[in-house]
Task: structure prediction
Amino acid sequence: MTAPFPSARGHLGEIAEEHRTVLAATVAALAEPFERLAALSADAVAAGGKLLFFGNGGSAADAQHLATELTVRFETDRRALPALALTTDTSTLTAIGNDLGFDALFARQIEAIGRPGDVAIGLTTSGRSPNVLRGLAAARAAGLTAAALSGRGGGDLVGLADPLLVVPADSTARIQEMHILLGHALCGVLEARFADG
Result:
């Protein structure tokens, strides 16, 4: 017997209420680490460095989204800000996956283009994605700031990423919603900081 089809309106209301609850908890819990991430990112850009975003699946899409907001524009016209998503070059991604293994996907790129003072921002809802963990370890070893957005208690990112922004939720969808909110907030802060060039 199939489960009854849920009311679309009721389902939307349930999701919206869960979203509101997670949003309030996120803002309360992550104000300090978000402020640190924003300051480190602004300092990196001011010093000629860049932001490197990376993740898998929906987090890969978020990485591309946020890098684009910074290199092009978010809400206002201003100079381009240096940001890259390490999820977009299919030749690089397939060569690394084929020759070195999928777990090396981001670490190898950081080894190639990361420089001390840059900020590497890994996105993983579970905190356990091996390629994100290896990417952040490579970033730390190379003198980059190794930051991350996560959920579910932070997983294996605890003690590796700093700052670490852990959304206080277990639902992948709610965590991803908070990641894009945090990312948009970061874009807004950086856009305001560099509004005058």
About this structure: The first helix runs from residue 8 to 46. The radius of gyration is 17 Å.
